Amino acid sequence: MPNCCSPKQTSCCSSPVLAITTVPIQPWEEPYEPCQALKTGTIFPGLDLPFFITGGERHG
Asked: What is the DSSP letter of 59?
């Protein structure tokens, strides 16, 4: 099958857009201390979210 997306073309012939992403900007916040970051799995408190296993039990 020939490649329809050559550098000379401005658009691909039949390649639909599969997805469009939006990523919110994360505001700066003071990171956790290294020991706390290792324990929680993230250095930013805003990303330290609860993890629920089926049944609603809180783990983490």
From this structure: E
